[in-house]
Write a structure and sequence with these properties.
By secondary structure, the chain is of the alpha/beta class. It is built from 7 helices and 7 strands, in the order αααβαββαβαβαββ.
Length: 207
């Protein structure tokens, strides 16, 4: 077995001691990312009883856990990821690659013609270590999420998407502004300070 590098040892130490990791264990969430959605939702009131939500890039499922609890028994949560995800009560899951048309078609078929109230997307590409490649891959996934939202969100619906600041960010923000009445930036406390990630919230999809 290879010895861990100093940087991965530091990350592991940080992760184990991380306040949000500890809270996730205590509260029964599958990942610390749950608190990012919880904080944004407290501010923006996105998750309401009875609404229909799609979670793109859902595994391991902490955002689904938050969403399913909030929308309640009369709401629906649909989840998609290339990775496996253990079942969550009240969540319908499709495993497949978001970039493939047939996977998106299978996922869309679950909606049975009804439009969504909210699309949430915490998706990130597999990291290559090449900053330019990783940024391009990330922006491509964000563009697919926006395209999906344009097709599947009802007028007045919302999109919350994780974006890494860098090449293509400004253009993506402009594209979101064409689709939504307003676009705001959120950086929840559970986002690590050094991470270039921010969340863009498109409110009130234009009809």
């Amino acid at each position: 077995m290879m010895a861990r590098s100093n940087s991965s040892n530091v990350w592991l130490q940080e992760h184990v001691n991380d306040h949000y990791v500890q809270m996730a264990k205590k509260d029964g969430y599958r990942a610390r990312a749950a608190y990012k959605l919880i904080e944004i939702d407290e501010k923006d009131k996105l998750l309401k009883p009875g609404i229909w939500v799609a979670d793109l890039g859902a595994a391991p499922g902490s955002w689904c856990q938050v969403a399913a609890k909030k929308v309640g028994p009369h709401g629906r949560v649909f989840a998609l990821d290339i990775l496996e995800m253990d079942p969550i009560r009240g969540v319908e899951f499709v495993q497949g690659d978001f970039r493939e048309d047939e996977v998106l078609a299978e996922f869309s078929a679950l909606l049975n013609g009804r439009q969504l109230d909210l699309v949430i997307c915490d998706i990130a590409p597999n990291i290559t270590g090449n900053a330019d490649t990783d940024q391009a891959r990330s922006m491509y996934l964000c563009e697919l999420a926006l395209e999906f939202a344009r097709e599947q969100l009802k007028p007045g619906g919302h999109l919350l998407v994780k974006v890494f600041q860098g090449y293509g960010f400004t253009e993506y923000m402009s594209a979101m502004r064409e689709t939504f009445a307003s676009v705001v930036t959120r950086k929840p406390k559970a986002s690590r300070d050094r991470s270039p990630e921010v969340y863009l919230l498109g409110k009130q999809k234009k009809s």
